[in-house]
């Protein structure tokens, strides 16, 4: 079977059957768990998505197991759980409500995975909504460093000549930093 996953995992072991139940996750209040709960809300308090921990795994490594009864993401760290949830989301986008039973094991090839967005050119405008969307996509792709490059087109509140509603400002940057921290990028 062909899987449309980005990045493609290290190993995929296919098993017989399909998971056809709803994916529900009950959060324990942790920031990461709240993020995963947004992806897979539970209305009845019964989890079908289990997060477990294994200290022998690498820091961002995860094992995503789908069987007929439940789904488990095993990781050493919260980042591993987040990346496993992103893979599960991609599987749902591809297969809908009938997910193949399988075991995926994956870990990033490098601890540092980055991308740069350059707002230094005169013809490049700062688009808030696009950048926020792009940051979320970076998390799905396991990119964990974002480099924003601004030159003259940053809105300094204290310098009237550099105040411009089309430039990024302090509020935008604070939002970007908090969004990235919440989503493990």
Task: Please tell me how large the radius of gyration is.
Answer: 19 Å
Query: Could you give the count of β-strands?
Result: 7
- What is the share of helical residues? 25-40%
Low-confidence stretches: none
The rounded distance between the terminal residues' Cα atoms is: 30 Å
Write the H/E string, N to C.
EHEEEHEEHEH
Number of helices: 4
Name the strands of the widest sheet in spatial order.
1-5-3-4-2
Describe the structure.
With 185 residues, this protein is an alpha/beta fold. It has four helices and seven strands. It has helices spanning 31-39, 78-95, 128-140, 170-182, and strands spanning 11-19, 49-53, 62-66, 71-75, 99-106, 114-119, 145-150. The strands form two sheets. The protein has a five-stranded mixed sheet with strand order 1-5-3-4-2, covered by helices on one side. Strand 3 and strand 4 (71-75) form a beta hairpin. The longest helix is centred in the middle third of the chain and has 18 residues, at 78-95. The two termini are 30 Å apart.
How would you briefly describe this protein structure?
This protein has 185 residues and is of the alpha/beta class. The protein contains four helices and seven strands; from the N terminus they run βαβββαββαβα. α1 (31-39) runs parallel beside α2 and α3 runs parallel beside α4.
